[in-house]
């Protein structure tokens, strides 16, 4: 047993050292594929919901579609803090400082727990006014409110698993979160139809049943994640004394996490106002938009996977003072994202109609408009990938403000104004909303790439690195 443990420790040390030297492609791939799989599995929650709810009709799909952007907005307010945990832990990992890895993890868990508890209470009691605000019609209002309220109780569980997942990714342990997500998705596959339609003595809750199933599986994943962190056998051990918030560390987490939260919340906010725009064209257009958005959320998974892998890899190499290698990581990630997602986009362009029909099989108008939305978006997926991985590089360099500004530019300066103008001021009508997606992807990718090549992020990183290391050690 002792020999096996020593061999396992030696293998793990070699894998971790490989993130700081050797083939960048191998390191990226080793980190990215489990993250991509975990994100695909997490997206499967939504796709499974959409599949079963589609059997209830277009209104059920529309009710979830209209509440999803608000859910994403609330979640994004705390999600940036989990990214801050990834960045800080990855850089201390690169600097080989286990004490600060454990302490940083404890502080992050405590802060995210407090934030998520607050958001759960606010989300539950503000569900109805929020749904009314974004324009939920009388045919979907009650379902959207009930779905949102039940989902709100899962914020604490969801955030706790997110922080576990982020901390594990920061030290390069990307397989364990994937296995946990895999198990919960299989469980959700069973629980979804059970709580939506009911069986035996278990009543069917309709649209709200999908949220009930998700909350149960999220709770299980959160408990498992916390047990692992407290056990300390997977590279991080959090102690109760490290979970007492310290003001200097709270400020540090917020300084990194708030821009990351604003980046995600700006996306969520833009998605929310976009839904408000879409609802003005009726429930069929909302359903078509919801299906297209679900496909987009699936397609963006590989980009996010490489972006998170880039964050971890860049963070560890900056912690080890390997700035040139960090830049090479950005170059390779951008190429992989552009060419890989362009190919995925072309495939989805060809499969747009059968994919839409899979979700809403009995509504020809929704099928027609949903497939058109996918076809218009699909060719720009490679550009979206470039923006995402460069944001990942900026995050790994502790420059989360750059990612925030690029996202704000994409969503608020280009996409939403363009969607409004094209849909209301031209003959395109609601199809103008569809066209705002590829155009904004193009502009955002150009801005991100130009800023990346300017090299300002490297100068800033060199200035800040010594300061944060000394603060952490002292």
UniProtKB/TrEMBL annotation:
The membrane-topology field of this record reads: Multi-pass membrane protein
Q: Which GO terms describe its biological process?
A: monoatomic ion transport
GO terms for CC? plasma membrane
CDD domains according to UniProt = MATE_like_12
- Report the principal subcellular site: membrane
Which keywords does UniProt give here? Answer: Antiport, Cell membrane, Ion transport, Membrane, Transmembrane, Transmembrane helix, Transport
Q: Does the keyword field hold Metal-binding?
A: no
An annotated Gene Ontology molecular function: antiporter activity
Membrane-crossing residues?
20-41, 61-89, 109-127, 147-164, 176-199, 205-231, 268-289, 295-315, 336-356, 376-394, 406-426, 432-452
List locations, semicolon-separated.
Cell membrane
Answer whether the UniProt record assigns the keyword Metal-binding to this protein.
Answer: no
PANTHER family from the entry?
FMN_FAD EXPORTER YEEO-RELATED, MULTIDRUG RESISTANCE PROTEIN NORM-RELATED
| Protein name (Swiss-Prot/TrEMBL) | Multidrug-efflux transporter
Question: What species was this sequence derived from?
Answer: Algoriphagus halophilus
């Amino acid at each position: 047993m002792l020999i096996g443990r020593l061999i396992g420790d030696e293998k793990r040390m070699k894998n971790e050292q490989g993130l700081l030297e050797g083939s960048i492609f191998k390191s990226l791939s080793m980190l990215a594929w489990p993250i991509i799989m975990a994100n695909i599995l997490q997206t499967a929650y939504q796709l499974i919901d959409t599949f079963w709810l589609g059997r209830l009709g277009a209104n059920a799909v529309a009710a979830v579609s209209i509440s999803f952007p608000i859910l994403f907005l609330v979640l994004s307010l705390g999600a940036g803090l989990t990214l801050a945990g990834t960045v800080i832990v990855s850089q201390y990992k690169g600097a080989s400082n286990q004490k600060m890895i454990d302490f940083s993890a404890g502080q992050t868990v405590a802060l995210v727990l407090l934030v998520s508890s607050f958001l759960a209470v606010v989300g539950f009691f503000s569900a109805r006014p929020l749904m009314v605000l974004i324009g939920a019609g009388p045919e979907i209002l009650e379902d959207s409110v009930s779905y949102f309220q039940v989902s709100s109780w899962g914020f604490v569980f969801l955030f706790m698993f997110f922080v576990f997942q982020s901390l594990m990714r920061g030290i390069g342990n990307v397989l364990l979160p994937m296995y946990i997500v895999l198990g919960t998705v299989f469980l959700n596959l069973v629980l979804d139809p059970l709580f939506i339609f009911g069986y035996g003595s278990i009543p069917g809750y309709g649209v709200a049943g999908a949220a009930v199933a998700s909350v149960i599986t999220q709770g299980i994943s959160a408990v498992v994640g916390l047990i692992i962190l407290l056990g300390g056998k997977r590279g991080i051990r959090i102690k109760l004394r490290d979970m007492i918030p310290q003001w200097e560390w709270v400020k540090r987490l917020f300084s990194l996490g708030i821009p990351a939260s604003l980046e995600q919340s700006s996306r969520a906010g833009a998605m929310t106002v976009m839904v408000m725009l879409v609802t003005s064209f009726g429930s069929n257009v909302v359903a078509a938009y919801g299906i297209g958005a679900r496909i987009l959320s699936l397609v963006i998974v590989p980009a996010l996977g490489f972006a998170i892998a880039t964050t971890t890899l860049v963070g560890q190499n900056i912690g080890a003072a390997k700035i040139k290698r960090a830049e090479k990581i950005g170059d390779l990630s951008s190429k992989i994202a552009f060419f890989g997602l362009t190919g995925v986009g072309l495939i989805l362009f060809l499969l747009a109609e059968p994919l839409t029909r899979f979700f809403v099989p009995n509504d020809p108008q929704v099928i027609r408009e949903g497939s058109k939305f996918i076809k218009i978006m699909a060719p720009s997926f490679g550009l979206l990938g470039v923006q995402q991985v460069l944001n990942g590089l900026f995050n790994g360099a502790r420059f989360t403000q750059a990612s925030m500004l690029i996202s704000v530019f994409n969503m608020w300066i280009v996409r939403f104004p363009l969607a409004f103008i094209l849909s209301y001021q031209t003959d395109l009508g609601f199809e103008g909303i569809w066209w705002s997606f590829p155009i904004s992807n193009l502009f955002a990718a150009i801005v991100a790439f130009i800023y990346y090549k300017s090299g300002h992020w490297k100068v800033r990183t060199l200035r800040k690195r010594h300061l944060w290391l000394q603060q952490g050690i002292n």
